[in-house]
Amino acid sequence: DAGITQSPRHKVTETGTPVTLRCHQTENHRYMYWYRQDPGHGLRLIHYSYGVKDTDKGEVSDGYSVSRSKTEDFLLTLESATSSQTSVYFCATSHHGGSSNYGYTFGSGTRLTVV
Amino acid sequence: GENVEQHPSTLSVQEGDSAVIKCTYSDSASNYFPWYKQELGKGPQLIIDIRSNVGEKKDQRIAVTLNKTAKHFSLHITETQPEDSAVYFCAAHITGNQFYFGTGTSLTVIP
């Protein structure tokens, strides 16, 4: 995961505050994804992007928004953080996206705690 | 959508023994099945994958088998070593769709 950097690595925030997580890649991959990881649920897709300014919702998108203004950066924003959004967030990239069967490259994750 | 179930959730084995993790999927259109290893504090890393036109694939001590009729696939690790201790995730993918992940198996290899 050397080509994918997530920031911050850890964050504690208060309920109701906005939070932005950043994913930066040097892989020049077209497709980028945000997942959350919770015990008993595995990895669940929040949002994904198939190109600059092209994004779409995943299965757990409520309360989250994303933006992608450059190929290398994919931002995840919690407009008003809630305790249910306490989780570990992973960014992933893929060169081929869903059109071909290739695995993802994951970042190291951001541990977010909402108090 | 696709539903992937993974068992067991935890697994402990003695060093040198084999470990087997099993996954089932619900959508017969799934045609790609990767396995990921996640070490503590790190992101998941792809370790092996199999496509639906293949029944088995090996890479040194790890192997994956696929039974399309029964809709299940398994990860086999032989001659386990302490560095194999991690959380393992299976996933199923339909071309043009997203990946669906299992809930993970925490493997502990006891020296």
- Principal-axes geometry of chain A comes out as globular
Largest sheet of chain B: 6 strands, mixed
Q: What share of the residues of chain B does DSSP label as strand, in percent?
A: over 45%
Count of extended strands of chain B = 11
* Helix and strand pattern of chain A: EEEEEEEEEEE
Number of helices of chain A: 0
Quaternary status of these chains?
heterodimer
Sequence stretches where pLDDT stays below 50 over 5 or more residues of chain A: none
Supply the number of helical segments of chain B: 0
Estimate percent helicity of chain B: under 10%
Structural category of chain A: mainly beta
Mean pLDDT across all residues of chain B, rounded?
94
Helix content of chain A: under 10%
Task: Assign the structural class of chain B, choosing from mainly alpha, mainly beta, alpha/beta, alpha+beta, or little secondary structure.
Answer: mainly beta
Characterize the largest beta sheet of chain A: strand count, sense, and whether it forms a barrel.
7 strands, mixed
List the main descriptive attributes of the protein structure presented here:
heterodimer, A: 115 residues, mainly beta, seven-stranded mixed sheet, four-stranded antiparallel sheet, 0% helix, B: mainly beta, six-stranded mixed sheet, five-stranded antiparallel sheet
Question: How would you describe the overall organization of this protein?
Answer:
- The complex is a heterodimer of chains A (115) and B (111).
- By secondary structure, chain A is mostly beta strands.
- Helix content of chain A is 0%, strand content 57%.
- Chain A is built from no helices and eleven strands.
- In chain A, strands 2, 4, 5, 6, 9, 10 and 11 form a seven-stranded mixed beta sheet that branches. In chain A, strands 1-3-8-7 form a four-stranded antiparallel beta sheet, with no helix packed on it.
- In chain A, strand 5 (42-51) and strand 6 (54-57) form a beta hairpin.
- Chain A is globular, with a radius of gyration of 13 Å.
- In chain B, strand 6 and strand 7 form a beta hairpin.
- Chain B is mainly beta and 111 residues long.
- Chain B has strands at residues 4-7, 10-14, 19-25, 32-38, 45-51, 56-59, 62-67, 72-77, 86-93, 99-101, 105-110.
- The termini of chain B are far apart.
- In chain B, 0% of the residues lie in helices and 57% in strands.
- In chain B, strands 2, 4, 5, 9, 10 and 11 form a six-stranded mixed beta sheet that branches.
- Classes of the chains: A mainly beta (115), B mainly beta (111).
- At the A-B interface, strand 5 and strand 10 of A face strand 4 and strand 5 of B.
